Amino acid sequence: MVKPQLRISESTIHRLSIYYRALNRLERENYETISSKELAKREKLTPAQVRKDLSFFGSFGTRGLGYPVTELRDKIAEILGINRSWSVALVGVGNIGSALVSYKEFQKQGFRIRKIFDNDQRKIGSNHKGIIVSDADDIVTELRDSKIEIVVIAVPSLVAQMIVDDVVRAGIKAILNFAPINLKVPDDVYLRNENMAMELEYLSFSLCNDEAQL
Amino acid sequence: MVKPQLRISESTIHRLSIYYRALNRLERENYETISSKELAKREKLTPAQVRKDLSFFGSFGTRGLGYPVTELRDKIAEILGINRSWSVALVGVGNIGSALVSYKEFQKQGFRIRKIFDNDQRKIGSNHKGIIVSDADDIVTELRDSKIEIVVIAVPSLVAQMIVDDVVRAGIKAILNFAPINLKVPDDVYLRNENMAMELEYLSFSLCNDEAQL
DNA sequence: CTGCGGTTGTGAAACGTTTCACAACAAATA
DNA sequence: TATTTGTTGTGAAACGTTTCACAACCGCAG
Questions:
Q1: Is residue A117 part of a domain?
Q2: Helix B47-55 vs helix B36-43: angle between axes, to the nearest 10 degrees?
Q3: Set of chain A residues whose Cβ sits within 8 Å of the Cβ of B44
Q4: What is the CATH number of the domain that holds A15?
Q5: What does the pLDDT read at residue B3?
Q6: Helix (H) or strand (E) holding B175
Q7: B94: domain range?
Q8: Which of B161, B162, B128, B131 is nearest to B148 (CA)?
Q9: DSSP annotation of A66
Q10: B13 contact partners, CB below 8 Å, separation of at least 6
Q11: Min CA distance, A206 vs chain B (Å)?
């Protein structure tokens, strides 16, 4: 079903996420099928782009009709690997960490936070949405024997590399990092960075170069 | 100093953000100059990319020596428009909103949250880091006569379009949206989306397609 | 069964970004 | 001054992504 990989670009994967959400909305609006034209219009993309993105993984549409909404949504979920649930651990329950524990969108897509770590004695042992915060010093041992597949890092930049080293040592292969720093990980570990200030900086740049841009 | 714009790509701007942070660290480590080679190595980029990115805006380096750390940092701050402070309003003090109010990285780069809105009666009037939460119904009037330049939207998807319409009506030209939905804004308004689930989905995809990728 | 309007899937063209490769130059050394 | 080492700035090549354009096909109407 899912075609042999011929190196899918990052942009394509990100657009799949977008299509996934759009299709969920369409389903709620009782659409049965959707054309690449309309889907593109809704998400400010081009029809050709929608079709090409999907064609990397198979042919899911019907000529003359478009794509079946629910079926395509499920297909994309399968491609992205969100047709299942993932066990996630969170390191750091400061501002951002706490927000993530309650972030509905994670849960909705099957990302379940099952362990929380912090190095602040006042937080260790406390309860966040039913999870007892563990000591960050125990990361390696606690993760090694767990079923955790993805670790989210929401600690200050200064300690982030230390934490990530532990996480790698525990055998974790996928890390989402919120610290605004470039972490070093071995080649076989997937690392993604989420830096919320960067988008604000982009806005700042846009405002400063206004008339030139549009 | 800053060259005539010849359409700078999004990736280049994002890398400028990265250089900016790297240079700050280098300054703290007492580097006086840095070569494109070393800077690239630190941030897992290529030297040519560093040089080309910078060359769009001028020539800041010295052949044989490299780039002066502090001077280049300041130059990039000027290009990105973060050598000043920006007045920001936040709409929605739920999980994410509250985290953003205390998010140090925003303040550090000159993004100052000066107004907060919410539509929850229990939150209106409450105090977040010295700011009294206003009624979201008053967004248009409150923003119109304010000095707010950027609005951050951290409300549920269902109400996000309504809020953004008000924000646009108030004359705001730059919006950072955390709701996982594609908002519609006029062409002259800059809109950026921050979707934290998307990066997790990317990790999920990577794990599912592991052996094929690396 | 034929023809028509609509839409997909995809090779090829167009476009954009990254990498290469080297002339130009700075500093240091002799 | 001449030579060597090191690094920038940049045009051009290589590469990657997006857009174009159209054959193939679906459903429907006559």
A1: yes
A2: 110
A3: 182
A4: 1.10.10.10
A5: 53
A6: strand B174-177
A7: 86-198
A8: B131
A9: B
A10: A201, A202, A205, B80
A11: 7
* A112: β partners: A87
Residues A69 and A159 in one domain: no
Q: Cα(A152)–Cα(A90) distance, rounded to whole angstroms?
A: 5
Residues lower than pLDDT 70 in chain B: 1-5, 211-214
pLDDT for the residue numbered A208: 95
pLDDT at B105: 93
Domain shared by A31 and A75, yes or no: yes
Of B80, B102, B193, the CB nearest to A201: B80
Which of B202, B207, B210 should we substitute to test contact with A (largest number of A Cβ atoms within 10 Å)? B202
In a domain, B205, yes or no: no
Question: With helix as H, strand as E and coil as C, how does B120-141 read?
Answer: CCCCCCCEECCEEEEEHHHHHH
Answer yes or no: is A205 within a domain. Answer: no
Residues of B in contact with A205 (CB under 8 A): 13, 16, 79-81
Instruction: Flag residues of chain A having pLDDT under 70.
Output: 1-5, 211-214
List C-alpha distances in Å: A163 to A117, A168, A199.
10, 9, 25
> Which residue is associated with the tokens 């070093």?
A184
Domain holding B108: CATH number?
A: 3.40.50.720
B22 CA to D7 C1' distance (Å): 19
Yes or no, beta carbons of B204 and A81 under 8 Å apart: yes
Q: What is the pLDDT of residue B5?
A: 61
Task: Kindly state whether residues A75 and A91 are assigned to the same domain.
Answer: no
| A187 with B214: Cβ contact below 8 A | yes
CA-based R_g, chain B, Å:
20
Residue B179 lies in a domain: yes
